[in-house]
Design a protein that fits this description.
α3 crosses α26 and α5 (122-128) crosses α6. The protein has 1269 residues and is an alpha+beta fold. The chain is built from 36 helices and 51 strands. The N terminus and C terminus are likely disordered. This is VWFA domain-containing protein.
């Protein structure tokens, strides 16, 4: 808390302004004011300190000298047009996209050709048995042993007789299948997972019998795809996983690998994956009719629930669905989904599943009103009332029931028969799922499906559900197969590779080393998420010993059976063979955007056809170490927020809606001058900047490319001039500018690389860059910036072309980005004279020694536009400080780099100061100063670099005290008899240096350093807001995660509390035994709880002390903390300093003494959201007194109650409490103050970028996450 003496003045200082807070005392206010510090004196202190720090920065960073060097080496400025730049980026992305689509089309082409089997083979296979051993061998991803081929393979076991009724005809003799051994080696290109690039492996899910003859046949012919996989990889070495998902249920994956199962039930089915489902069916609009009449009790409804769950799992974000539960009435299990189809996002599907589990079973089944409601809902969407257009959509009704009592011909004739064009049209398919063993009126329910272009299925047990639920996909795909010519290429939404079952366990195993925290180095949360989740530079794994996760998308294409009619001439078949696909890391899209060309505070992003973010710098797949479930359904309007003073959640601005709708519609255009607010530093800082947006569709994909640029400095960029190009051609030795080890390049940018990136084992990006520099400087190498383009492959007649006309890439092929590398060399030369060595040698001629010794400056650094970061130390240092570049190597992508440039735009030649948020806990903490380096040419200036330095915080405090003592008030000096007791050293004055985010940089109490000033002196922050020094800002975080913790005990005492619990326990036991049997027989799996885990600690509690050999001793009870993470929305209350006049200080004086009561309101969570209205969610409990909206808060988040002060004695007692107590549940009581704000505190050394500590809380989501976008 602020330490304020009785009768004195608290004087907080801001880096943008000086604040003087004077307490009301018995003496006249003016006398107290002028006796300590007048506004003019405060202004004088500010100017003196600003001049001192500005002079130090100039001498230490050598900014002026660096600017001169840029001019000497001929750096130029070129104009950058947003429309031209976004077109260039689009072309780069489309070239990469076309390469991936060519690869997947090649797999499809060969799969359709190799699938031809002249005769019906499975009967022959059964008779021939093991005569041809190779015919029954395959490499299994699950069961193949690791070892040499000479090892004897193990055959598959005999299937149980009751395995499934679906293979009852295989209970006769079935062939043996042998598993071939796997020889695997870790490959850095595949994230150090053991693989073999000479063959593929086959995964067969538990619900598929790999000894079924038709499965054997498909496995055998698909083995011929291995040469295609290899040819694709040779032609495009950037490819990762390639696969073929068969309609029979198995998946062939290249390169070959072993899945880590960890003794768990394998329920992964490729046919349930989004890349498969999206390829075999267009967008779907589906109504699931769930019979909840009285006859559905017991096992039938258990099957019905599982059928509904399985069907919901087959929908993707391109589909719209709802569930109607019916008996004698029809209702939606979730009220806010009434009369609408909702998008089948993961959270929406999960909500529907939970609602289905809780629907009551009662009444009789009225099928007429149920079908009528379903048809009417789908008709409204066809007519465009519910959603614009869906000509290619498949509309379907899926009925789940135990029987149909009557004929429903009239309903179908009314709603599903149209003859507008002279041909009968049936717009809605009907799929029926009959449940139970004893059923009646089977012909009626069969007729429903067959006459309405659907499919009928009869299921009698749980184990049949998963397989039977997938059959409707082949029916929906038939029209596409029948036309035969067009193969739609489909791109999926973003997903994380740790969600991919084939590699998830491998990644978790390597990710376990993340607990070592990279030799106990501490990262910020944003940096930790970026390093360990978002990024994916496999070459740095060896140094960090931590596997990075990465975001992916998939491209897939359907594969048709073109020979079905040849095998059986009695009927015309239209069968689907499966889907071919491959994974594409999103970092490939990012690399093609060439961020260095976009520049600081600009970025490219991708939006899907649903308005969801595919790639964006603000996309957060991980929050506080927890992977988010719904990161791939984050809408563009949830990230791009307009500064329009909106204080209500989920109220997007018209400009962002226009931008979103245009990008969803795949349009070309631009929207200029949008004022965007955005956060930095783990959303603790906020700023506002005008941005221009440009967008173009990416051909061949459902994605639209967007580009955001600042309209001023974003329209120009620094360029390598002709003068430097001539110097480079004359023979610059590149390695001369990269001496020592204290330098880094941007780890995510591609300077140079081999196309086969696994042929050279580079451990760091710097090592890779130096390799190419040596190659460039070697005259014998005949250097080229990139290898010659590959010509199409000439295929001789009769030769099989598994690469589909693409030439293999030689191993020594490489690529170097000429513009980026030349820019790096130019900037390295520009800073070489001052930052070219690891140790900072102080030179008196440069006047460096005096400021370094005076402030005890320990190091300085510079980071350039081309991604080079160099740092120097005054003396040889060790420890974490010597690894500055490991934490600050991303140049223009670092938050401090962005903030420094923004500061320069507001106040040229200013200095940004920053201290760690936990600086008060460490007396040796340093303050960091940043200043921008701009290059000027032709009347324009552009950001070229950011330079800075570090020094102890206490040295800054000493300088502040010295200035205030030297220029102290004459009246104070006369009264005290010495300047030592005036200024900040006075007992009556407390001084604070604040950054413009409101965080304490210097304080009398060191523990306050790094804290938000509103926590230190709340009344002063109130006054600053009232005089307009700070602007309150509301930032909604729609990507937050709410962490719920539950204590779980192993004790059994609860069972004895009531007889009801005995009954409950018995029923739970019976249900559990049944489910366990189902799982053990590979029938069914419980609902996935992927976001639930247990902490690694437990507390052992014993009811009594156990004794040796005492059989009655109580068993120990273990308690665990169960932690669950759920997506939620949060509101962040931040503040931004207002730019005010520099002529006169701002003064606030409240003549009416009053007490302000500070109240914190209970957060609104999803658990109680149903019982809280929107107003209550934002306001919380109504206070008894009048509420004022002040101090960076929305009403309900932070409240102040106003009371009249009865006497001065009470005020003084309250003031003493404020000085000694930390915030508690009781209100804080403090007095009003006189406040003086001097805006010209450090005219040359201002921290323009403002952050205010906020109280994060979940806000009312209602049905937002579950409703249609």
């Amino acid at each position: 808390m602020v330490h304020i003496r009785k009768g004195g003045c608290g004087i907080p200082l801001l880096l943008l302004g000086l604040v003087v807070v004077c307490q009301h005392v018995v003496l006249p206010a003016e006398a107290a004011w002028h006796d300590q510090a007048s506004p003019e004196l405060v202004k004088q202190w500010a100017e003196r300190l600003g001049k001192t720090l500005s002079d130090v920065s100039r001498k230490v960073t050598r900014v002026a000298d660096i600017k001169k060097m840029y001019k000497q080496i001929g750096a130029s400025i070129k104009k950058r047009d947003g429309e031209t730049l976004v077109s260039e980026i689009k072309q780069n992305i489309e070239e990469m996209v076309q390469e991936k689509m060519d690869a997947v089309k090649c797999i499809m082409k060969w799969a359709e050709e190799e699938s031809y089997v002249p005769t019906v083979r499975w009967e022959d296979l059964i008779l021939e048995e093991e005569e041809d051993g190779d015919m029954f061998r395959y490499r299994s991803s699950k069961f193949s042993p690791l070892g040499d081929e000479e090892e004897f393979p193990q055959p598959t076991p005999e299937p149980p007789l009751n395995y499934t009724t679906g293979i009852a005809h295989y209970r006769k003799k079935v062939p043996l299948v042998y598993y071939q051994p796997l020889e695997l080696e870790p490959d850095p290109h595949f994230f150090n997972i053991p693989v073999n690039t000479s063959f593929s492996t086959v995964h067969v899910p538990t619900n598929v019998f790999d000894r079924a003859p038709e499965v054997i046949e498909a496995i055998q012919w698909s083995k011929k795809l291995d040469p295609v996989f290899e040819a694709n990889f040779r032609a495009d070495p950037s490819l990762t996983w390639q696969y073929f998902g068969s309609a029979k249920g198995f998946m062939r994956t290249y390169p070959g690998m072993k899945w880590k199962m960890n003794d768990e039930v394998d329920l992964y089915d490729c046919r349930m994956q989004p890349w498969y489902i999206s390829a075999v069916s267009c967008s779907k609009e589906v109504v699931i009719l769930l019979d909840t009449s009285g006859s559905m009790t017991g096992m039938r409804f258990s099957i019905a629930r599982l059928v509904a769950h399985s069907l919901l799992d087959t929908f993707t974000s391109n589909d719209f669905v709802t569930v109607l539960a019916f008996s004698d009435t029809v209702k939606t299990p979730i009220p806010c989904f009434q009369d609408m189809l909702i998008q089948a996002t993961k959270e929406n599907v999960q909500a529907l599943k939970e609602a289905i589990d809780n629907v009551p079973i009662e009444g009789y089944g009225n099928f007429t009103i149920a079908f009528s409601a379903a048809f009417q809902l789908l008709e409204s969407y066809r007519d465009g009332r519910g959603r614009e257009g869906c000509e290619s959509c498949n509309q379907a009704i899926m009925l789940i029931t135990d029987g149909v009592p009557s004929n429903l011909t009239e309903v179908f004739e009314t709603y599903n028969r149209f003859n507008e064009t002279g041909e009968m049209q049936i717009p809605v398919r009907v799929f029926t799922y009959l449940l139970g063993k004893e059923v009646t009126n089977v012909r009626e329910i069969q007729w429903m499906a067959c006459l309405n272009r659907g499919w009928y299925t009869h299921m009698q047990s749980l184990e049949e559900v998963r397989e039977e639920a997938l059959r409707y996909l082949n029916v929906i795909a038939r029209p596409m197969v029948l036309q035969g010519d067009q193969h739609p290429v489909v791109w999926s939404h973003a997903y994380a590779d740790f969600q991919d079952r084939k590699v998830s366990q491998w990644l978790k195993e390597v990710m376990g080393q993340h607990m070592d925290r990279e030799n106990e180095l501490a990262y910020t949360q944003a940096e930790e998420d970026r390093r360990f989740v978002i990024g994916a530079d496999h070459e740095s794994i060896k140094t960090r010993k931590v596997q990075q996760f990465q975001l992916m998308t998939s491209v897939s294409i359907p594969v048709f059976d073109r020979f079905g009619n040849i095998r059986d001439n009695t009927s015309v078949s239209a069968e689907l063979l499966g889907v071919a696909g491959l994974d594409v890391p999103l970092k490939m899209f990012l690399e093609k955007t060439k961020p260095y060309q976009i520049g600081v505070n600009g970025y490219a992003f991708l939006v899907t056809n649903n308005g969801y973010i595919l790639m964006h710098p603000e996309l957060k797949p991980v929050v506080q170490g927890f992977p988010r479930d719904n990161f791939n359904s984050v809408d563009l309007t949830e990230i791009e927020m307009v500064d329009d003073d909106t204080v209500e959640a989920r109220q997007p601005n018209e400009d962002t809606l226009k931008l979103r709708n245009s990008m969803v519609a795949h349009e070309k255009g631009s929207i200029l001058d949008i004022k965007i607010k955005f956060a930095l530093d783990d959303q603790r800082r906020i700023n506002v900047e005008t941005r221009d947006f440009f967008y173009l569709p990416v051909n061949g994909t459902p994605f639209t490319l967007g580009l955001s640029l600042p309209p001023n400095y974003g329209t120009f960029s620094i360029d390598v001039g002709e003068k430097f190009r001539k110097l480079e051609k004359a023979g610059i030795t590149s390695a001369n500018y990269f001496h020592g080890t204290n330098w880094r390049v941007h780890p995510d940018w591609v300077y140079c690389r081999y196309l086969h990136d696994n042929i050279k084992n580079f451990t760091t990006p710097e090592e890779r860059l130096m390799h190419f520099f040596k190659k460039k400087d070697n005259e014998e190498e005949k250097w080229k910036w990139f290898s010659d383009p590959l010509l199409p492959l000439d295929v001789e007649s009769g030769e099989e072309d598994h690469s589909c006309g693409r030439r293999p890439v030689p191993e020594d092929y490489y690529y170097c980005d000429e513009d980026l590398v030349l820019g790096l060399l130019m900037e390295a030369k520009a800073i070489n004279n001052w930052f070219g060595t690891d140790e900072w040698v102080l030179r008196d001629i440069m006047n460096e020694r005096e400021p370094v010794e005076h402030f005890n400056i320990t190091m300085r650094f510079v980071s350039t536009h081309a991604g080079l970061t160099r740092w120097q130390y005054v003396n040889a240092m060790s420890g974490t400080e010597s690894r500055f570049g490991d934490f600050n190597n991303r140049a223009i992508d670092e938050d401090w780099y962005k903030a420094t440039i923004l500061l320069h735009e507001e106040s040229p030649d200013s200095i940004l100061f920053n201290v760690p948020f936990d600086a008060g806990a460490d007396p040796d903490q340093t303050v960091t100063a940043f200043t921008a380096v701009y290059h000027q040419d032709g009347g324009h200036e552009v950001p070229a670099a950011v330079a800075g330095y570090k020094f102890p915080i206490h040295r800054l405090q000493q300088q502040l005290y010295k200035i205030t003592e030297t220029y102290a008030s004459p009246s104070c000096t006369e009264k005290a008899g010495s300047t030592d007791l005036c200024g900040c050293a006075s007992e009556d004055i407390s001084c604070y240096l604040l950054d413009v985010n409101g965080y304490v940089v210097v304080s009398d109490e060191f523990n306050d350093t790094g804290r938000f000033f509103g926590d230190v002196a709340p009344d002063a922050m109130v006054a600053l807001k009232k005089i307009g020094a700070y602007r309150q800002m509301v930032l909604f975080d729609y990507q937050a995660t709410c962490i719920n913790q539950t204590i779980v005990s192993s004790g059994a005492a609860d069972l004895f509390l009531t007889p009801v619990r005995w009954v409950q326990g018995l029923l739970s036991y019976m249900a559990g035994q049944f489910l366990q049997v189902a799982v053990n027989n590979y029938m069914w799996s419980p609902v996935d709880a992927a976001n639930s885990f247990y902490d690694d600690y437990g507390e052992e509690v014993s009811s009594k002390e156990a004794k040796d050999d005492d059989e009655d001793a109580a068993r120990p009870v273990y308690t665990y903390t169960k932690v669950e993470s759920d997506p939620c929305d949060k509101i962040r209350l931040l503040a931004l300093v207002n730019m005010t006049s520099k002529d006169e200080p701002l003064v606030y004086e409240d003549p009416e003494p009053e007490i302000l009561s500070f109240t914190t309101v209970e957060p609104v969570t999803e658990k109680n959201v149903e019982s809280v209205t929107d107003d209550e969610a934002m306001q919380g409990d109504e206070p008894e007194k009048e509420v004022q909206e002040i101090e960076g808060g929305v009403d309900g988040e932070v409240k102040y109650e106003t009371e009249n002060v009865e006497n001065e004695d009470n005020q003084e007692e309250d003031e003493e409490d404020l000085a000694t107590e930390e915030p508690t549940e009781e209100p804080f009581v403090f007095r009003s103050r006189h406040v003086s704000f001097s805006p010209n505190f450090i005219s040359d050394s201002t921290d323009r970028f403002l952050r205010v500590e906020s109280l994060d809380r979940p806000i009312d989501m209602t049905c937002r996450n579950m409703a249609e976008t």
